[in-house]
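User:
Note these tokens:
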Amino acid sequence: MSGLAILIPVALLMGVCGLAFFFWAMRHDQFEDLDGAAQRVLIDEDDEPS
């Protein structure tokens, strides 16, 4: 029972921290261009003519 007294607040704190980081990422436009990163992976820079 005493273990739950420690683990429940720790889990709640981790959840609040994760939510805060998610909102920080949304505010700083980290999720703005998801398709662009997927397309850049497929581009091979060695095949470009010089």
User: Anything to note?
Assistant: The longest helix spans residues 2-27. The mean pLDDT is 88. Helices lie at 2-27, 34-42.
